[in-house]
Write the C-alpha cells for this entry.
Amino acid sequence: MTIQTALSPVPATRWLPALAAPAQHAELFAPATEACGAGLALALAQDWLRSAAPDPAADTPDQRAWIWVQDKAAMRLSGCPYRPGLPAELRHRLIHVAADKPEDALFAIEEALRCRDLAFVIAEIAGNPQALSFTASRRLSLAVERHGVPLWLVRLDARRDLGSARMRWDVRSAASQRPRWNPQAPGKAAWRAELFRARSHPPGTWVLEEAAGALNLRQTQAEPLEAAAHG
Amino acid sequence: MLRRVLSIWCANLAIDRWRLAAGEGADALPTALIAETAHGPRIEAVNAAARQAGAQAMMRLTDARAICPELVTAPADPAGDSAFLERLALWAQRWGPWSALDPPDGVIVDVTGVSHLFGGEAALLADVSAQIARRGLAAQAAIASTAGAAWALTHFGPQHAILQPEDSLAELPVAALRLDPAVLLVLRRLGLKRIGDIDGLSRPALTRRFRNRHAPAANPLIRLDQLMGRVPEPLLPVIGHEAPLVQRRLMEPIRHRELLDRVLADLADDMARLLEARGEGARRIELGLWRVDGEVVIRRVEMAQSSRDAGHIVWLIRGRLDDVDAGFGIEMARMRAPWCEPLLLTQRDLDSAAEERGTSLAACIDRLVNRLGEAGVRSPLPHASHIPERAQRWEKPLTPEVPSQGELAFYTRPIKLLNRPEPISVLYATPDGLPRRFRWRGALHEIARVDGPERIAPEWWRERSSTRLRDYYRIEDHLGRRYWIYRAGLIGDGRGGAPEWFLQGLYA
C-alpha cells in the first residue's frame, strides 16, 4: 500500500532511462563551454523515440524531421551543430533554426511545437533573457502537452530561475569509461545529471552514458553536484 | 495546303529597346551599348549618331573613343533582349497560330491559310509593319513558303517581300543561307557569292566537299534544301504560360488594416479556388496594392512546398503588411502566383484529427522563414571536403540530399563546431608531442586522456600555399569535458613561426 499525501497525488517513482513517458517539456541547465547540455538532450530525445509506443498504422520507419533552435548568444558561445558528429539516425533529419534574439527563438520553438510532422525539438538559449519569463515557459509547456511534440530546452550558463518545465536537470560532463582497445583515449560520452525538480519523479543524481543503442545508467546517487569540485 | 511562313527581323532590337527606356532625346547623342569582356569593354550595338561618327558593333570601346571621343555608353542587356523577344513572339501570335523564336533578334510565325483574314498577304505585311512601328521598333518582314526563304528575304531582300513558289532566290548572297562565318569564308574563297552559284554546281561535288559537316549552319547543302523546302526544318514554338491572377477593384479606397485583411482573405480564397481548378499549388505569391495616387506596393512570399491553403497564404502575407502606407487609400488589390507547381487533389487522412492537430512541416518552415529570413532556417548537408568546417554546407530545408560517398566511420567527430576556431594556450612536453594542459576562455583544463593526432592537410587546390596543416587531438580533461583541439602547422614547416593551438569542437 502506497502512502499518498495531499501534495503528491501521483505515486512518485524514480526516474529511469527508457521510461515510456508522454511528451514533456524538460529544461537542462548546462555550462556553455561544454556540449554536455545538447549531448544529453539528444541522448534523452533518442531514448524517448526508442521507448515511445510505435504507431500501429505506420508502415515505414519514423523519418520525421527534428528542429534545433539556437539564439545568437548560444551560437557564439557554444557553436553550431556539426552534422558528421550527430547520431547517424538523426543527422539527415535536422533542421537548424538560427534566431537573432531570444524572442525569435521562443517564437520558433512554439511554431515547431505546433507542427505535427516533427519528432522533437531541441533548443538552446544562453543566459536568463527577459523574454524567457515564467509565462513564456508555461506557454511552451502547454504547447508541448497539447501537441505532443517533446521539447528539451538547454539553458547555457543560466541561473535556475522560475520555470514551468516538467523536468529540470543540471548537467555536467563526467569522465568517460575507458575504451576497451585504446584506454588512453576519451570514451563514449558520459554526463552527471542532477534532476532537481520534476513533477512525477523524486529528485536524484545519476551518471548517464551513451551505449550502443541505449542510454545507460552507470551510477545512481552520485554525490550532489555542488559537492563535486567543478571548474 | 501550301505552307506560308512570316519572318520578322528587328534589325536594331538592342538599340530600339534602349531608346524606348532612355527616351528620344538621349538618342541624339552618339551612344554605344557595351558589354564587359576579358579584354575590356566591347561595343555590342550603336545608334545612328554613333555609326555616323565611325563607331561600329564588335569594336573595342577604347578604339571607338579614339575615333569619337564624345561617345556615350550604356550597358548592353542581352538577357533583357531575349526576354523581350519571347514576349514579342507571343504577341506575334496575333498573325498566326504559332510562332517561334529566331535568336538573337527575329521571330517566325506560321501564317499558312490566315492571310485572307487580313485581306491578303500584302495587307498582312503592311499590318505587321504598322503594328511593330507603333511599338517603336524597326523591323523587316517577309512571307515565303519556308522559314529559310522568309529569313533570307527579311535580311537580304526588299522591304515587304512576298515569295511565291515559282520565284527564285538565286540572286541573294550566300550569307542569306544562315551559315556560320567560317563556312561563308570557305564559300567566298571558292568564288561562290550568290545562292544561284551553289545551286548551279553539281550536287555530288558539294556533298563531297562538306561531307563531314552535319550541323545545318555548317553545311550549305542542308541550308539550301531547307530554303527550297526539300527537307523539313522543325521550329520550336513558344507557348504562353499565364500566371494565375485574381484581383479586387474596390468601390471605395480603403485606408484601414481590418478592411485590407478582409480583402486579402477574399483574394486568397479566390486564388485557392483558381489554383484548385488548375490542379496547381503556388510556390511564390505576389500581392500588389494599387494606391489612389498611382503608387504600387508589392509584397512577395515564398513557400517551402507548393500549397493552395488560403489560410496559410493569408498568414504569410499578413506579416508583411505592417509597413504598408495606404496614403489616400488603396483602390485595387491583385494577387498573382508567378511560380506554381502541380499539386493534385489528394485524399485527406483517415482520421482528420491528425490534420487539425497542428501545422504541416512545410507550413511551419514557411512561418519560420517569414519571421527569421532565409538564412535563419537551414539544414546541414554533407559536402565533399575533408576540412572539418567545410564538410557540411547549410542549405534550405527540405532540399533533397545529393548522393555522396559516406563519411569514414572510424573517426569520432564533435557534436558541435565553434563558428571559428578559438586560440588556446597549450603546455606540451615536447613541441610536437601530446598537449598536457591548456587555457581556454580563462579556464585551465588539465588534459587527462588524448586520442590523436589525426592529421588533416590543407586543400592545396583551393587554398594558399602558406596554409598550414592541422593535427587534431580528441581530448578529455580532468572534469570529463571532451574537446577537439588542433595544432596548426609543424615546427620548421616554413610557413610561419611556432605552431598555434586552436579549439574547434565540443564533444557531447
